[in-house]
UniProtKB/TrEMBL annotation:
<dbReference type="InterPro" id="IPR041667">
    <property type="entry name" value="Cupin_8"/>
</dbReference>
<dbReference type="InterPro" id="IPR050910">
    <property type="entry name" value="JMJD6_ArgDemeth/LysHydrox"/>
</dbReference>
<dbReference type="Pfam" id="PF13621">
    <property type="entry name" value="Cupin_8"/>
</dbReference>
<feature type="domain" description="JmjC">
    <location>
        <begin position="99"/>
        <end position="233"/>
    </location>
</feature>
<dbReference type="GO" id="GO:0000987">
    <property type="term" value="F:cis-regulatory region sequence-specific DNA binding"/>
</dbReference>
<dbReference type="GO" id="GO:0005634">
    <property type="term" value="C:nucleus"/>
</dbReference>
<dbReference type="InterPro" id="IPR003347">
    <property type="entry name" value="JmjC_dom"/>
</dbReference>
<protein>
    <submittedName>
        <fullName>JMJD8 protein</fullName>
    </submittedName>
</protein>
Length: 233
């Protein structure tokens, strides 16, 4: 479903194609800067399993754990996946706080969702000393997670479009932890001088974003979106 959030055509995150080697990835990006990787995986088979009909048929009655869409997402709510899709998967209310918005991302039951993840082809690069963990999500247009940071990882869009905003670890963004990314984009982003704006780009299906350790990042789904991250812990 098309969202009401316009796409920003400008992209300030570096891009690399399938010709990038593992040694170049480690040297140039792994520990220093984000990068958008194109053509490094083919997840058409996984995408075919992630349509609304296929997901509801496979997981409709199973519970999913929702988090609040704020920086410190401590509150969790369990609902059947069918109920989430029917009643909660909708555009973000601009007036609603992130602490009052429920978001399906990250808390996957790997016993139930494991068979789906077996079909996902992860990015071919790893950070030495880390192991990957998947985090799968589905959310409505205008939704997203405000600024936060954690370890390094990859994020791929399966359906929809997702806009990313990123700051390096030493540049703390100005934001309120209970404000949604949509509200931040509408109220704070326009006031930022060019030198204080984040790196940003919109990811489309099949594109993979890598972000290094401790980089601040916020996300905004421009459409009803399906996405999966590979966290390197």
């Amino acid at each position: 479903l098309a969202g009401t959030v316009p796409e920003e055509p400008r992209c300030t995150v570096e891009r690399a194609d399938a010709s990038v080697t593992y040694s170049l990835f480690l040297q140039r990006f792994a520990f220093s800067r984000p990068v958008i990787l194109g053509g490094v995986t083919d997840n058409s088979a996984f995408r075919a399993l992630c349509t609304r009909e296929k997901l509801l048929a496979a997981f409709g009655p199973f519970p999913v754990r929702l988090s609040t869409a704020n920086t410190y997402s401590y509150r969790k709510v369990d609902v059947p996946f069918q109920e989430y899709v029917d009643h909660l998967l909708k555009p973000q209310d601009p007036a609603r706080l992130g602490s009052d918005t429920l978001y399906f991302f990250g808390d996957n039951n790997f016993t139930e969702w494991g068979p789906l993840f077996q079909h996902y082809v992860p990015p071919p690069f790893r950070i030495p000393g880390t192991s990957p963990a998947y985090s799968f999500g589905i959310a409505g247009s205008g939704s997203g997670v405000p600024f936060h940071w954690h370890g390094p990882g990859f994020s791929e869009v399966i359906f929809g479009r997702k806009r990313w905003f990123l700051y390096p670890p030493d540049k703390i963004p100005h934001f309120h932890p209970n404000e949604t990314t949509l509200a931040w984009l509408q109220h704070t982003y326009p006031t930022l001088p060019p030198a204080q704006r984040p790196l940003e780009c919109t990811l489309h299906p099949g594109e993979v974003l890598y972000f290094p350790d401790r980089w601040w990042h916020a996300t905004l789904n421009l459409d009803t979106s399906v996405f999966i991250s590979t966290f390197l812990g």
